[in-house]
Amino acid sequence: MRRVLTLAGAMTACVLGSMGAAHGQDGKGEPFELVRSLQSLQDQVVRGNTRAHAAQRVLLAHIAEQFDALKPEGWKDPKNARAAVVFVLSGGSARALQKLMRSGASTDINEKLLKGTLAYGEGRHDEAAELLAGVEARALDPGTAGLVAYVQGELTAKKEPAKAQVHFDDARLLSPGTIIEEAALRRQIALLAAAGSADRYEALATQYLRRFPNSVYAGGFRQQFALAIAGHTDAAESGRLARLERMLGGVAQSDRREVYLMIAKEAVAKGKMAMAKFAAANAEPLTEAASTDRERARLCEGAALIVTEEFDRGVEVLGTVERSKLAETDAALLDAALSVAGQVRRMPDPPDAEPPVAASPAGEGQALAQARKAVAQVDEILSGADKR
Predict the structure, then answer these.
(1) pLDDT per position as a tens digit, 273-316
(2) 135, 157 Cβ separation under 8 angstroms
(3) Cβ contacts of 276 within 8 Å, gap of 6 or more
């Protein structure tokens, strides 16, 4: 933790230092200059800069101090007033706007935007939603518009998800390539997943995977994407797997491999064997020979096959998996799969002494019951292994 804070402080010092050099000042800068630096820092987060992510909190605190120290005449600069709105909507302290409103300084800021932003910063979200509903984000200046649209989406997402989608669309349109677009995409995709809107979910997920592969938040997104695909995509639906391949076709190979492996493992745990087989088959060519990822792909393929008509092939694949290269959770998955294979092999055949027609119901019933019991046991084992 200490190292993280040190890096954050160093990066913030670099930002402030460069500002001081640019403006011939001591590095403190006017609040509006610091807010611009905050926006730049936040945009670096979606390009994969983890140090920028850690530095945000330090810079937010520094900007709050600068607003606290701002003298009354400082509010005469309209750029500082607009910066206070952006600062609060970006997660900064509401004290900046409280001070602005107490100063009595005249601004050209829409009154509903000003009061709505203050309500948002103070945690009065219902009031903020009502006030900001009267603000047309597209009519605002470029530095504020996308952020306001995003916050409008956040404030309406729970009660009016369809309206939130419109706001998030605006946010992406108004702030392309920024943390606002990235965050709006993630929120839209989450809402679509909850609503079961498969087609638009796939379209926006594809856009996210291709536009923001290096975002600090991309790893978490890929995991949620894999969970959604494994849990809710019907592999038997015509064209669905082909669409999934196209979705991931333009994604970097390492990310594509990671997604397919996560889908395969989750699909096995959920008993979606067709999906698991498909994902494992797509993951394996993307892995290096004798690598851990190659063993993971084989593991998922074998685990999927042993509960299908390709049982023998599944056992063969599992036999090639090098346990020593697996992580603990994957080793537990291998043990579970081998346990099922062993139980299936021990299932009794129908008695030979009786005619097939007469013996079939009882014999098949016993075998089917044991098979179901074995699959239920492995589901329980796999779920437990996946949570470790």
Answers:
(1) 999 999 999 999 999 998 999 999 999 999 999 988 999 999 99
(2) no
(3) 230, 263, 264, 265, 267, 268, 300, 301, 303, 304
DSSP 134-198: T--GGGS-HHHHHHHHHHHHHHHTTT-HHHHHHHHHHHHHHSTTSHHHHHHHHHHHHHHHHHT-H
* Model confidence pTM above 0.85: no
Instruction: Please give the structure tokens belonging to residue 275.
Output: 């999906």
Helix (DSSP H) and strand (DSSP E) numbers for the chain: 19, 0
Instruction: Measure the CA–CA gap between 286 and 288, rounded to whole angstroms.
Output: 7
Burial 340-375 (b: 16+ CB within 10 A, else e): bbebbeeeeebeeeeeeeeeeeebeeeeeeeeeebb
Query: Helices 273-283 and 253-269: crossing angle, nearest 10°?
Result: 160
What is the spatial distance between Cα 233 and Cα 225, in angstroms, rounded to a whole number? 11
Residue that has been written with the tokens 């905050």 in this structure = 38
Distance CA 279, CA 382 (A): 17
- Greater pLDDT, 134 or 388: 134
Rounded Cα–Cα distance for residues 265 and 296 (Å): 8
Reported as half-sphere exposure (CB side, CA atoms, 13 A), residue 57 has a value of 9
CA-based angle 385:241:177, to the nearest 5?
A: 85
Rounded Cα distance between 89 and 319, Å, is: 56
CA-CA distance, 168 to 163, in Å (whole number)?
A: 9
* Distance (Å, whole) CA 126 – CA 130: 6
Rounded to whole angstroms, the Cα distance separating 275 from 277 reads: 5
Whole-angstrom distance, CA of residue 250 vs CA of residue 209: 9
